Amino acid sequence: MIRENRTSKYLLYAIGEIVLVVIGILIALQINNSNEIRKNHLTESKYMEEMLEDFEVNLQSSKIAISRLEEVLPALIGLLEQSALDTPSITVDSINTVFSMIQSMPFYSSTDRVYNNIMGSGDLRLLTSSELKTLLSNYYKNLNVLTIVQSTHEMELVQIFQPYIIDNLDFQSVYAQRLEESPLPPPTETNRIIEVLKDRKFRNIIVAKFSILEDLLQQNQFLEKINSDMVDLLRKELKK
């Protein structure tokens, strides 16, 4: 009887020790999990702070590209209107200046510093906002489309518009870039554009460029909206 009591005490003691060890492990795991959650939250907040900086830059880039496009499109419409007149109502220099915009390539360049870090490190899981993840997905989907449009536009500039200028105009008169450190002599055929102003090919070139820039404008407007939404969302998340 005494032996049984002693055995029962040892058994209870052993069970108690096991329980204490298990409780200790559970407490340690809970502390570790809490530390991991806190660490992940700090990392997420840091990512969002830096991402906000990136998308503020992207939003400004969108606005600059849109502003430039909204400047060029009306100018091209005005050039079409001039080509329909018996006699242009603006000077030859003005016509050449407007036509030089046909070489305009408003280019949107995305700042992806933080996004590339997140994807490269596999830390996308740390972003807990499903709305943020959806916006990121939409942004890069639309960015891919814009990148294709911009690349196509660059190719068409080289394959369509510049050859037209070389074949039909005085390139120097409609040269879009003026390098002060390497000035060119004055152009010799400034009036040549008047000779082609009413040609169907001239008008088609203007309309083709207009169509390309309209497409670019639409794509940049899509991105501007996403950039604006992203900035607003990140600011809201960082205030939580």
Instruction: Compute the CA-based radius of gyration.
Output: 32 Å
First-last Cα distance: 65 Å
- Could you tell me the number of beta strands? 0
Overall SS class: mainly alpha
Q: Please trace the helix and strand order, writing H or E for each element.
A: HHHHHH
Describe the structure using short key phrases.
240 residues; 0% strand; mainly alpha; rod-shaped
Summarize the topology:
Blueprint: H1 2-83, H2 92-99, H3 113-121, H4 130-168, H5 192-196, H6 200-239
Helix pairs in contact: 1-3, 1-6, 4-6
Give a brief description.
With 240 residues, this protein is mostly helical.
Structure, explained:
The protein has six helices and no strands. Helix content is 76%, strand content 0%. The termini are far apart. The model has no long low-confidence stretch (mean pLDDT 87). With 240 residues, the protein is mostly helical. The protein is rod-shaped, with a radius of gyration of 32 Å.
